[in-house]
């Protein structure tokens, strides 16, 4: 039997690896009714012989960390679907997002107790990562939660 090897979809995920930081716009929500701005850091590395990317995220508002998360990106080998397993400081337990790459953009969706969440990572600009999180009650009409642009640090 041949040893499994990472696929092109796995290799696409490695583009998320690196040290990133940048500014975020926080849209009005139950957690921050007035909206606002934040700084965020993402530290992501390729793991498990190229089959996963593991990331840690921290968001700061007014110099204090207000939210943190840990993600494990991988690929469903039968379908090339991207899978993000997410845990965070809100304590809601494991959330699983699924979706596909479309060129330089990967968009993944989860269903959770509050409805749906969609996370989009856009790598179409050199050395920039644009991220947008949206929520929906019905997976048809989406409301922005935050968006950020991060720069890679070597």
Question: In what order do the strands lie side by side in the largest sheet?
Answer: 1-2-3-4-5-6-7-8-9-10
The percent of residues in helical segments reads under 10%
Strand content: over 45%
Shape: globular
Terminal CA distance:
39 Å
> Mean pLDDT across all residues, rounded?
93
Largest sheet: 10 strands, antiparallel, barrel
Number of helices: 1
Describe the protein's architecture and organization.
The protein is mainly beta. The protein has one helix at residues 8-13, and strands at 18-26, 36-47, 52-61, 64-76, 81-88, 95-102, 105-112, 115-122, 128-136, 143-153. Strands 1-2-3-4-5-6-7-8-9-10 form a 10-stranded antiparallel beta barrel. The longest helix has 6 residues, at 8-13.
Furnish the topology, listing elements before pairings.
Blueprint: H1 8-13, E1 18-26, E2 36-47, E3 52-61, E4 64-76, E5 81-88, E6 95-102, E7 105-112, E8 115-122, E9 128-136, E10 143-153
Antiparallel strand pairs: 1-2, 1-10, 2-3, 3-4, 4-5, 5-6, 6-7, 7-8, 8-9, 9-10
């Amino acid at each position: 039997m041949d040893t499994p090897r990472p696929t092109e979809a796995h290799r696409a995920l490695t583009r998320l690896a690196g040290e990133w930081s940048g500014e975020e716009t926080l849209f009005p929500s139950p957690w921050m009714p007035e909206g606002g701005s934040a700084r965020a850091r993402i530290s992501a590395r390729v793991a498990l012989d190229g089959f996963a990317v593991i990331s840690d995220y921290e968001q700061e508002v007014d110099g204090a960390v207000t939210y943190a998360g840990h993600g494990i990106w991988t690929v469903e080998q039968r379908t090339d679907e991207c899978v993000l397993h997410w845990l965070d400081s809100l304590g809601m337990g494991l959330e699983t997002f699924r979706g596909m790459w479309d060129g330089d953009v990967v968009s993944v969706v989860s269903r959770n107790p509050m409805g749906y969440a969609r996370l989009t990572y856009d790598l179409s600009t050199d050395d920039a990562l644009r991220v947008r999180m949206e929520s929906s009650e019905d997976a048809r009409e989406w409301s922005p939660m935050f968006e950020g642009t991060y720069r890679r640090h070597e």
